[in-house]
Amino acid sequence: MTKQNLQATYDANFASTQPMGSVENDEIDLRELFAVIWKGKLLIIAITAVFAIGAVIFAINQPNIYKSEALLAPAESEQSGGGLAALAGQFGGLASMAGINLDGGGGVDKTQMAIEVMKSRQFTSNFIQKHHILPDLMAAEKWDMVDNIISYDENVYNVANSEWVREVELPYKPEPSMQEAYKEFSKIFAVNADKETGMVTVSLEYLSPQIAQQWVNWLVQDINKEMKDRDVAEATRSTTFLKSQIEQTNVADIRSILYKLIEEQAKTIMFAEVRDEYVFKTIDPALVQEEKSKPKRALICVLGTMLGGMLGVMLVLIRYFVKKEN
């Protein structure tokens, strides 16, 4: 058998093993798919319309949310860290012999500490109770732009009697606990630090732009006061301790170190008392925003319509293939 005959025989056998009309079958399947979709177009249109209308109604009923934010810069550290470091260099060995530590914990970043304090449950709870914002946080329903009035959910809070009337199961009570309030506040509040610039942004979202701005301002004021009070209390306790140590020693060098430490604590207290912006300086204060930050109503409508269209196509195809198999 010649080479040409062998090649012809191989081609014939190879062609016989291939499924007949594979390309045609693919085209037929694709055409069949589009035909099924076209046949069920009324159902697809109906489902898409229902989802589109539902998305529009949902978007319209969502209240406007306004975001207020303040840009802060860490206050310059002018406290006693430098003085304590100098004392540690001069008298560290002698002080350690006397049982006095001059290290002072200088590795603590007060800016980061202040950020973590702002996020803490204790600070948030104190903030809510101090400014009496629990009804605005847990029961507010909508804001009247014309009259600048917050409306409350009558099933949750009775404004006339200043009474909580919500129905809940134990262990919850009609008046929300601070744990509930903390969870709700965490959803609308954020504080972030820029790693490159060191700037800190405090932001808050709420129904009313005026209230959002007020809360941001209060947060900045309260964290500065909180950190100031902590340092003053610590310096006062340290001063009391150092004075007691002076009374217990007659070594001149040790007494000299203790007096210098008392001087540093006095500087800390003085520094705290003369500065209101103790930890954070306000670079760009919070404003009453004129434009809402959310909801994105157009996006909600588009996504709702797309979801309805995809669901309609899936239902038509599933119904067709189920009937085909049966």
Automatic annotation (TrEMBL):
Keywords: Cell membrane, Membrane, Transmembrane, Transmembrane helix. The lineage of its organism: Bacteria, Pseudomonadati, Pseudomonadota, Gammaproteobacteria, Alteromonadales. InterPro entries: Bact_polysacc_biosynth/exp, GNVR, LPS_length_determ_N. Residues 26-130 form the Polysaccharide chain length determinant N-terminal domain. Residues 281-320 form the Tyrosine-protein kinase G-rich domain. It is found in: Cell membrane. The chain crosses the membrane at residues 42-60, 298-322. This is Lipopolysaccharide biosynthesis. It is a multi-pass membrane protein. Pfam families: GNVR, Wzz. The keyword Ubl conjugation does not apply. One of its GO terms (cellular component) is plasma membrane. It comes from the Bacteria. One of its GO terms (molecular function) is protein tyrosine kinase activity. The keyword Transmembrane helix applies. Coiled coil: none annotated.
